[in-house]
């Protein structure tokens, strides 16, 4: 894997609800590679959105707070920046395509108008032809018509493409797309995903795709980050993770995906419920659902073991004397 664009270390984020402060991101660390497509995977509530929203100052200011951490981008810590400094980066250099279309698009303005406005605010060429080029880039047919259309006039797939167009119109260095295919049907899903591959190839844009769908990640990503209980539990290249998952949670997710794609009548499913912040304890976050659980797993949160970018947070997977991570033979 190549040079890093963004280096995130020990990010901790809390929310105050009903008078109680709960830490929901408990030490998120990850490296986002230059020119790479990184998939961030995990079940609902694992902390994918909050982790990446926090980097750009996008969490709810009234209830949320960043307790600690560092996110180094172009030699500066994003987490220590004033809002004015962040504003110059947000959208222009790092752009976020939201999980919820209502957060991304203004319903009262046409698509072309919104894109022109973004270009103008950032002092960039806002000629109509420039906007039309980007609408073409995201595969929207008849961009001249779409330019004047309002979000409610677009189909789900067109809306998704328009949101991505808004995200790339400033040609950011990093595009963070949160569940970019959750509002499109399966026939459109592949085409939207191919779009990310095309943008990555054409502009060398680094891309983070947040998803809970292994198929999505496998289709477009070079590298994967697996999250569980507000922590990264595994990180590595797609090929390595798919062929030899190290964390039991990753293993389970892959089993579920394989079963869904097969013709089996009985679908494989992961037992138990995902962990919420109210349940967090000082133990392996996955231990309560883990088939390999041993007493040692409940003693503390395991550290991440890192060998040449292949990382895993599991006490049951130990490092060999060599460069590869190796699985310890297990009693369970
Ligand atoms: N504004 C908020 N106030 C309180 N808790 C919050 C808030 N936003 C998120 N959380 C909590 O933070 C945790 C992580 O949420 P997050 O939205 O990052 O999950 P996610 O992995 O993106 O899930 P999904 O796949 O459903 O989008 C969850 O337990 C969630 O309830
Ligand atoms: Mg989310």
Secondary-structure blueprint of this entry?
Blueprint: E1 4-17, E2 20-33, E3 37-41, H1 48-55, E4 64-73, E5 76-77, H2 83-89, E6 94-97, H3 101-104, H4 111-121, H5 128-137, H6 143-147, H7 156-168, E7 174-178, H8 186-203, E8 206-211, H9 214-220, E9 223-228, E10 231-237, H10 238-243, H11 248-261, E11 305-307, E12 310-312, E13 317-319, E14 325-327
Parallel strand pairs: 3-8, 3-9, 6-7, 7-8
Antiparallel strand pairs: 1-2, 1-4, 4-5, 9-10, 10-12, 11-12, 13-14
Bound molecules: adenosine-5'-triphosphate and magnesium ion (MG).
Walk me through this protein's architecture:
The protein folds into 2 domains: 246 residues, Rossmann fold, CATH 3.40.50.300; 69 residues, no CATH class. The strands form 3 sheets. An 8-stranded mixed sheet has the order 6-7-8-3-9-10-12-11, sandwiched between helices. Strands 2-1-4-5 form a 4-stranded antiparallel sheet, with helices on one face. The longest helix is centred in the middle third of the chain and has 18 residues. The chain has 332 residues and is α/β, with parallel strands linked by helices. It is 31% helix and 26% strand. The site of adenosine-5'-triphosphate (ATP) has 18 residues, from strand 1 and helix 1. Magnesium ion binds next to helix 1.
